[in-house]
Amino acid sequence: MLVYSHKITPRVRYIFKVLLGDMLGLDVSFEGNRQAFLESSEPKLSYTHSAVENELYFKSHGLLHDTGVKDQSVKVVTGENGKYFYAVQSERSALLFDAFAASFFLLTRYEECLPHIRDHYNRFEAAESLAFKNDFLTEPVVDQWVLKIKEIILKAYPDSVFKDRTYNFISTIDIDNAYAYKHKGFMRTAGAYARSLAKKNFAEVVERTNVLIGRAKDPYDTYDFQLEIQKKYNLKTIYFLLLADYGVNDKNVPHYNLQFQSLIKHLADYAEVGIHPGFNSNENSNKLKVEKRRLEKIIHRPVIKSRQHFLILHLPHTYQNLIDNDITEDHSMGYAAHTGFRAGTCTPYTFYDLDIEATTNLTVYPFTMMEATLKYYMQLSPEAAKTHITELVQKVKDVNGTFISLWHNETLSNKTIWEGWRDVFTHMLEVAHV
Description:
The protein is α/β, with parallel strands linked by helices and 434 residues long. The protein contains 14 helices and 15 strands. Strand 8, helix 9 and strand 9 (272-275) form a beta-alpha-beta unit. The radius of gyration is 24 Å and the shape is elongated.
């Protein structure tokens, strides 16, 4: 597909390559000369202020011909094909809005690069997003727009050949705390006993003792179940491991513990693994480097996948830090407080850095739901959670996207506050697996 624009900017190249190239499989090229565009016999479209002649035409809004991050006046409209914004006034335009500019706004997380209110963990809040405020956070609108563009191109060029979009499912597990009681060291264990006794939580004292003397299995040790279910459903699974130094928000087993290292190697034999950068890694870029090296030393191979602990994502700074440390896949694109599509898509995509106005080599893998969101923020019962997950999976299947789930090893224990949630997990696998 030949794309004409009066100004071929890095933004124009990026979004057309992502939407038409990566998502639809077309070979995209660009032309800035009107006459050369008119004389071309290949399938073509124009993206500019006004149509060149009688070609397939998409009226541009202006965002993709701009630079820098500036306040945007965005009005969301509800039409017969769903929600959209950046409406255009043109009878010739194939769409009533600039889907390319709107997709760019969502994929780059443009609004997160503007001044915004952050929550108590210093995160961009879902409630502050355009999608949440306009009730389309649970819709993969970018994918929906892409499929509409495909229909329009096919009508103009019936012989166009697109790649088949296929639905995929990726199960991801964050290991923030590998064990509830084991391998914590003398001081941490003594302190835990003291806290339990002070609260008169004698059941926890008994359970901890039984685990430590080998009479009971650690409640967070759900790895046999995970690997068994992975084999049963032939899942693609990724484990993200926290290897930060001990702190208020980083409480995993010490990275140098040999039993913990053995567990990591065992998991890496059957699944992919990635780093789970510690709570303060955004404030100190060297922490990511140190933690990543720890994991690489344990598994004896390069680490290219990452998900931020607590989902703390400061754009574009966090992604710049990942890129500087040779991370090529990030799985943090989602909210803690709400399920849905933070970037408006359920398709992995290349990240564009608004700071330097350039396409990067980092691929963003947006996740759709986290179990803690369902329980803590949405306060759903296990049965209600099953219904919600089923609805989300169907929305991803409707656009042949990738459904990515986020769970933690301790929530699969099926004990205490997580009683009944292992059944939610297996239900998700039933409806989501390919």
